[in-house]
Amino acid sequence: MNAKLSTENATIQFKATLVTISDWTILQVPEDESVKLSSRGQVSTDVTIRGHSFQIVLEPDGRWSHWCKVTPEMRATAGVKSGDTVTVVITQRSDWPEPTVPDDFVVALASAPDNVQAMWHDITPMARWEWIRWVNATREQSTRDRRVKVSISKMNSGKRRPCCFNLAACTDPDLSRSGRLMQPND
After folding, report:
1. What is the pLDDT of residues 35-76, one digit of tens each?
2. Helices 114-122 and 103-110 meet at what angle, rounded to 10?
3. CB atoms within 10 A of CB 109
4. CA pair distance 32, 17, nearest whole angstrom
5. Per residue in 155-169, pLDDT tens?
6. What contacts 181, CB < 8 A, 6 or more positions away?
7. Which domains, from first to last, does the chain contain?
């Protein structure tokens, strides 16, 4: 990657073909457009496909670009399917949507000490996304269980973010290998 990262909120526009990886329809952002965003990690955005806008947190692909899942609801609203080539407009946002907290993490947070619960509500939505991403970034249930416990322990000791994992890696275990988004033919 030779281009300089943007330091401001950006709007990018490009054409892309929706692809399927592991039964998910995804949109891959070309690297020459992705570099205009402010981070190689997750980025809060509005993604517009065929005139329909969706608030999406783009995920890093581990190759210096980004991607997002195009959900069945998004496909129905925009009238698109895997294999369609679409014009996409992405506008970076400064605010972050609240993440969906996995059930096991909800249970752990509910039974955590008061200071952990207070911290969870005090940290930014972006920080909550990072904790959830770290917990979700494994195929092994035992590792996931350990990460939920470690998350509570770290927050109990005052840590506001998980430490020491590559924020630019693709961490979805259904779509990645060795920190990189699988390709449609993988």
Report:
1. 999 999 999 999 999 999 999 999 999 999 999 999 999 999
2. 130
3. 19
4. 16
5. 999 999 987 668 888
6. 21, 28, 61, 62, 63, 67, 170, 175
7. 11-92 (2.40.30.100), 98-186 (no CATH)
